[in-house]
Amino acid sequence: VFISQYATGQKEALRAVLKQKTQNTPVLKEVKVQLLGNASTEKKESVGQDTRSTHREVDSATTIAAATAAAIATTAPLLKVQNELEAKVNSVSALLHKLQETDRQLQHVAEQQTNRKTQYEKPHCHERVSELEKQMNAFMVQRIQHLEKLQEQQMNIQSHLISSAVNTGGLQQIHVPSSSLMTKQSEKPQQQLLTNEVSSCQRGLFPNS
Question: Domain of life, per the record (predicted)?
Answer without folding.
Answer: Eukaryota
